[in-house]
Design goal:
single chain; alpha+beta; six-stranded mixed sheet; five-stranded antiparallel sheet; 17% strand; transmembrane helix; Beta-lactam/transpept-like
Length: 594
């Protein structure tokens, strides 16, 4: 058929059908493409909505996601501990160890060289190794550590010995960058990875949690203040030939511990068995291991440092209304006992004179008028009937007389005998004496201002103000004179007490203490320094009391730490004690060289 034969208006069916198919294919392709695009956009939208929802949930609940194997590999097994300024005190550290593996060689002898040859090579690398012990270990054929924590260059030298049985696996160890500094605060980590003794034990769960491993645990300790405290206590020990010492620096308004030291100390990087225990014979002699915390775990009769507490309780109770009132100062006979002073202080003393000269006789009479019920209540409110309030696991329980206190007990407690507490108890009590009368628990955690506990009232603000004056007078005119540091306005009280022993008190074994506060016009910090069995030496003018060993240590310490804590010396400032000076005219005259 040709084109001329087709009717007008008719098209060839073959051409029409082909075009229609092509159009349909194109439309279907575009539709599929659009659907696929919509699916992709839908998936992205769902993922985005899910992610936003997850972020919102985590932000609202604080729940952290699991980091997975890669994330876990990037964070330490145990979190870092830092001081209040971020200085590292404890952290995990990757090290090599020297391990003897007798099964390193599948066949034949476990060693290529003889034990003697290997021991000689190891001693050249590690001179402090015991050659005999190394030979015995290698000859025994038992696997085990020959040395822990070796340097990479030492591992290379071991490799050069050419002994397959000597391996040096890479391990994680706990490292204390500051050595023995703050050892009793930090504690250590044992071979099983568990924290022991100090904040390593107290924070064990926190340090091994995901959050604790990621973010450092911040202590209230100031590395610089801690270093100065340990240094001055060490000097005082040497100068007085004391067997031990302890000290604490405490913020009077928050209870934060800026420094806490117990000497002798130990190195948490290399803890030895005798650091944590003593023999039975040593224990019977009253010896304690180096790891024992004298500040929080050992209780002592702290002597005359209790006298300002007694006076504060009497002022609050209203049994003292006139500081100029005079009290008899002759030996006081109570039942079968006699209370006396170390020297004759004259026929009578007023309250400022009694504190300046540290009179047991007058303080006992003040406590007698106060009464046992009120005296005991004051001590309980200061927390002296319970373990010290702090996070450390090592906290000693006071020797606390239960029941109703008889007259003699009340008197002896007033000057620090018949009750035994820790130096940390004393620091907390002095903070309450000077900060307006509020007792707060001590803490080794750095606190935000909003987290400072309200505490509990022990003394009135008026009593606290008066005690600040009296403490300053003791340092200016009394037994605390050797603690005075120009411009730092230190106040405080000395205390010397005989140590109890078998059959009674040991007259030649003293615990000497100086409890101080600075600056007295605006109290910021309590400093307590304690010496265990100091001796009379040329450096202490052959005296053993706190005035000659503990007080001078504080006098040297405060000028070192004051500027670090923002307290600069200023000899134009001081607490006003002009209304009390007329009560001690002789002492003022002596101080003025008249």
């Amino acid at each position: 058929m040709n084109a001329a034969a087709l009717p007008i208006g008719t098209f060839p069916t073959t051409v029409s059908t082909g075009r229609r198919k092509l159009v349909n294919v194109r439309q279907r392709t575009l539709l599929v493409a659009k659907l696929r695009t919509l699916w992709v956009l839908g998936v992205f939208a769902l993922v985005g909505v899910g992610a936003l929802g997850r972020i919102g949930y985590l932000g609202a609940t604080g729940v952290t996601t699991h980091r997975g194997e890669l994330g876990d590999a990037l964070i330490p097994d145990r979190g870092e501990i830092v001081d209040r300024n971020g200085v590292p005190l404890a952290r995990d550290f990757r090290v090599y160890s020297l391990w003897f593996n007798p099964k390193a060689m599948v066949e034949g002898s476990p060693l290529i060289h003889t034990p003697d040859e290997i021991a000689d090579g190891l001693v050249r690398i590690f001179p402090d190794l015991d050659r005999g012990e190394v030979i015995a270990r290698l000859a025994s054929g038992k696997a085990g550590y020959l040395r822990k924590s070796i340097l990479p260059e030492e591992a290379n030298k071991v490799h050069a010995l050419g002994e397959p049985a000597l391996e040096y696996p890479r391990e994680t160890t706990r490292f204390y960058p500051q050595g023995s500094l703050a050892a009793h605060v930090l504690g250590y980590v044992d071979s099983y990875g568990k924290g022991q003794v100090g904040m390593e034990e107290a924070f064990d769960k926190q340090l091994t949690s995901t959050a604790g491993r990621t973010d450092p645990s911040v202590l209230s300790i100031d590395f610089r203040v801690q270093s100065a405290l340990e240094d001055e206590l060490s000097k005082a020990m040497v100068l007085s030939r004391a067997k031990g010492a302890g000290g604490v620096v405490l913020d009077v308004d928050t209870g934060e511990v800026l420094a806490l030291a117990s000497l002798p100390s130990f190195d948490p990087n290399h803890v030895k068995p005798d650091d944590m225990m003593v023999s039975d014979a040593e224990a019977r002699k009253g010896e304690v291991p180096h790891g024992f915390n004298r500040v929080t775990n050992q209780v002592y009769e702290l002597g005359s440092t209790f006298k300002p507490i007694t006076v504060a309780a009497a002022l609050d109770a209203g049994t003292i209304t006139d500081l100029g009132r005079r009290w008899p100062a002759k030996p006081l006979h109570v039942a079968r006992f006699t209370i006396h002073d170390d020297e004759d202080l004259g026929p009578s003393l007023n309250v400022p004179e009694a504190l300046i000269h540290s009179s047991n006789i007058v303080t006992a009479q003040i406590a007698d008028e106060l009464g046992g019920v009120r005296m005991k209540k004051t001590m309980e409110t200061l927390g002296m009937n319970e373990r010290p309030a702090i996070e450390l696991p090592a906290r000693g329980f006071p020797i606390w007389p239960s029941g109703k206190w008889p007259r003699l007990r009340t008197m002896t407690v007033s000057f620090g005998h018949g009750i035994a507490v820790t130096p940390l108890h004393l620091a907390g009590a002095y903070a309450a004496l000077v900060n307006g009368g509020i007792w707060r628990p001590a803490t080794l955690k750095k606190l935000d201002p909003a987290d400072v506990p309200a505490g509990r009232r022990v003394f009135s603000a008026a009593t606290s103000a008066r005690i600040r004056q009296l403490l300053r007078m003791i340092v200016e005119y009394g037994t605390g004179r050797k603690a005075d540091a120009p411009g730092f306005r230190i106040g405080g009280k000395t205390g010397s007490a005989e140590k109890p022993g078998v059959g009674g008190y040991r007259r030649h074994a003293l615990i000497t203490t100086f409890a101080a506060v600075f600056p007295m016009d605006e109290p910021r910090y309590v400093v307590v320094a304690m010496m265990d069995e100091p001796q009379g030496t040329p450096a202490t003018s052959y005296q053993r009391t706190a005035a000659w060993n503990a007080a001078p240590a504080v006098g040297r310490l405060v000028p070192r730490i004051g500027p670090l804590l923002g307290i600069m010396p200023d000899e134009t400032r001081d607490i006003d004690i002009s209304d009390l000076k007329p009560l001690i005219p002789q002492e003022v005259s002596k101080a003025n060289g008249e």
